[in-house]
Amino acid sequence: MADVVARTNGSSAAAAAAAGHPAPERERASLGALWFGFFGAPAAWTVQVLVNLALASHACFPALFPLAAPVTGGLRVITFAVSLVAVAVGTAATVVAWRTWRRTRGEHQHASGRGREHAPGSALLETGEGRTRFMALAGVLTSVTFLLVSILNTAAIFLVGPCAA
So what's the pLDDT on residue 46? Predict the structure, then answer.
């Protein structure tokens, strides 16, 4: 029995080594770049919303009743500065995600030479190929989306009054 297990493990290990890694382009993208491209812009937008909401809430509603004008002088300048930082981080995350996707976009089942092993519709799913490319592309989509939302939040600073009811 142990001999059968050893032969099976040996042949599957040899087959796995011959088949190559399911993400052959993984060296072209660092893990940090993938994660920053995916989470950088959403994290920046989250900080932008939470900080600006806290600042505006306290400036316009410091006690029991809302005020017509903010208590804090320069509220728009402070919220604009926070928003500029968020837009800068979102832009950086978008650029990193885009560059990472450009480096890994050729990663698919044919690049590893295993394109004919599975049915065309399920090859990527069954072999797990394209993981680096998928994460880079997902980073592009999330970063662009949250960058646009951060820009719209920045525009709202000037379009909506700080203590508007």
Answer: 98
What is the DSSP secondary structure assignment for residue 69, as one 8-state letter? S
1-34 tens-digit pLDDT: 555 445 555 555 554 455 555 555 566 778 899 9
- Please name the amino acid found at residue 8: T
Q: Are 93 and 138 in contact (CB under 8 A)?
A: no
d(CA 54, CA 78): 12
Q: How far apart are CA 95 and CA 155, in angstroms?
A: 22
Phi, psi of 36 (to 5 degrees): -65, -40
